[in-house]
């Protein structure tokens, strides 16, 4: 079942430490991590995306520095809609598969009543044929930093191939579905580090069998 959670960070207290970012598995200086992404698109010009792999490969993040959309008088179409394709080379241990089961979005929104931004993520593996689509809507009124979560449908997960190394390809699109001819609205990076973070929750299982994480 699809689940949607929106949390405005201005309401966080000491009782909610799990929502704070954890230190990722950072490679030594001068080296690239094995999952280092290749990326292109209007929402991710070269040099504007960072990635981290957390825990025991339980969460993979893409931190965007330019995946921002705006609407309002004189705002061009290219600023109302952005897209990005990211390719991760994330190797599964022998005998295991993984998929993306959910996504956290962390950013800043200034959306008036009745204004909405639609997000769509389509992911697949370069050596497989199936795809999974995860959709979300950022619905005004929204004002402030937020975390919004979306789950993929459990029966629609796409799994990596067993015994093969292929790229995890994630295509993301953000665009205003409704806009105003008079007011300005935006969905951008958060107010702390000015980055829009997409955090992919990974599910692991034995090849064709039981979930392992």
Automatic annotation (TrEMBL):
Signal recorded as keyword: yes
Domain of life: Eukaryota
The UniProt record lists the keyword Protein biosynthesis: no
InterPro entries noted in UniProt: DUF4360 (IPR025649)
Keywords assigned by UniProt, alphabetized: Signal
Signal sequence annotation: 1-15
Name of protein: DUF4360 domain containing protein
Organism: Pseudopithomyces chartarum
């Amino acid at each position: 079942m699809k689940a949607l959670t929106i949390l405005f960070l201005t309401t966080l207290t000491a009782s909610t430490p799990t929502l704070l970012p954890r230190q990722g598995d950072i490679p030594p200086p001068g080296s690239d991590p094995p999952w280092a992404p290749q990326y292109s698109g209007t929402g991710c010009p070269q040099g504007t995306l960072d990635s981290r792999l957390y825990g025991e490969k339980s969460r993979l993040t893409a931190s965007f520095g330019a995946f921002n959309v705006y609407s309002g008088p004189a705002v061009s179409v290219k600023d109302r809609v952005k897209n990005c394709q990211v390719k991760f080379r994330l190797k599964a241990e022998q005998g295991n598969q993984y998929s993306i089961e959910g996504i956290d979005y962390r950013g800043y929104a200034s959306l008036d009543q009745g204004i909405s931004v639609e997000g769509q993520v389509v992911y697949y593996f370069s050596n497989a044929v199936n795809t999974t689509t995860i959709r979300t809507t950022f619905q005004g009124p929204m004002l402030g930093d937020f975390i919004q979560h979306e789950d993929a449908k459990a029966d629609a997960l796409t799994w990596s191939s067993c015994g093969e190394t292929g790229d995890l390809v994630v295509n993301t699109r953000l665009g205003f579905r409704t806009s105003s001819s008079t007011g300005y609205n935006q969905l951008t990076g958060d107010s702390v580090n000015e980055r829009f973070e997409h955090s992919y929750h990974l599910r692991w299982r034995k090849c064709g069998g039981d979930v392992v994480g």
